[in-house]
Amino acid sequence: MQQLLHEWAGLLSTLPRKSLGLAAWLVALALVFGLLERWRPVRPAQRFPRRDLAADVIYYFLSGLLPAFAVAAATVAFAWLLGGLIPASLLNWVAGLPLWLRIVLLIVVGDTAYYWTHRWSHELPLLWKFHLIHHSPTELDWLVNTRAHPIDLALARVLPLLPLLAFGLRQPASRDMETAAAVYVALTTVWAFFVHANVRVRLGWLEQLIITPAFHHWHHHNERSAALGRNYASLLPWLDRLFGTYHLPKELPSAYGAADALPSTLGGQLLSPFRPRRGSPVTTGPD
Question: How many other CB atoms are there within 10 angstroms of residue 20's CB atom?
């Protein structure tokens, strides 16, 4: 408990500095993706900023600040639970691997864990209540990436952490090991903004190796029930092929959003998962 309080105190002390860093990143992201979305938009008539830009900016800062506290708690808890179970020989062997190989293993194990966490957030009604906020926009752009309930984001970051710690791919006490983790986090973060962007980009055969905006836009579509519950991976599309949820036709979706309604206010949206409501999670449809 003392270690957790120490971690949280450290996070609290860095909130002002981290907020400034997030603001700088927001400006940089707006410049880069603003140009990309003007260059080759999926929907040329779609305007940015959108009507709910203010709420999206607040979500951006909430997602950048709050889930870190859950991740810190999970890291301490998982390290305590797994401390006596993971052989030191495994930790040493993983630590001795080349940096590039550790990054590859982080991507494969991390994205596999994320795939199932993401899929459960669609298929389990309780988790869908939180994940629904992310699927509520009827227009997609780069800033939709962080439009999510803090609890939804915390789960998406905490649950994949367990196998990474169990396989020795995350060793918080080792600065060298955390270098690979930092590369992995940076890659997944930047790519998540890219695949939400209103950008028409197709990469040919590379789409078999890494997801693209077209792949993820179909995850956000609101059209045919046969294609619902698809494309859960964050980087590796072959995971969806492996688990039967791959969907990438030549055309792009014409409608986005979720069937379940949300309150129009930010506060109402954040509180909506805790209120009794009708609504069904998005489940996997037939091929």
Answer: 10
Question: What is the phi/psi pair of residue 221, to 5°?
Answer: -70, 165
Its pTM stands at 0.89
Give the distance, in angstroms, between the CA of residue 126 and the centroid of all CA atoms in the same chain: 18
> Using an 8 Å Cβ cutoff, are 217 and 140 in contact?
yes
Cα gap 76→81, rounded to integer Å:
9
d(CA 169, CA 86): 12
Q: Are 150 and 130 in contact (CB under 8 A)?
A: no
Tokens of 107: 């991507």
Q: In terms of pLDDT, which residue wins out, 25 or 4?
A: 25
Task: Please check whether residue 134 lies inside any domain of the structure.
Answer: yes
199 assigned to some structural domain? yes
Q: Per mean pLDDT, which range of 87-96, 118-127, 222-231, 277-286 is the poorest? A: 277-286
Q: How many residues does the chain have?
A: 287
CA-nearest of 35, 31, 27 to 199 is 35
Bridge-partner residues for 82, per DSSP?
none
Name the residue range of residue 39's domain: 2-274
Locus of tokens 């109402």: 268
Please write the tens of the pLDDT for every residue from 240-273. 999 999 999 888 888 888 888 889 899 999 999 9
Check: CB of residue 146 under 8 Å from CB of residue 60.
Answer: yes
Model confidence band, residue 79 (pLDDT cutoffs 50, 70, 90): confident
Q: How many domains does the chain have?
A: 1
**3-state percent helix, strand, coil for the chain, nearest multiple of 5:** 65, 0, 35
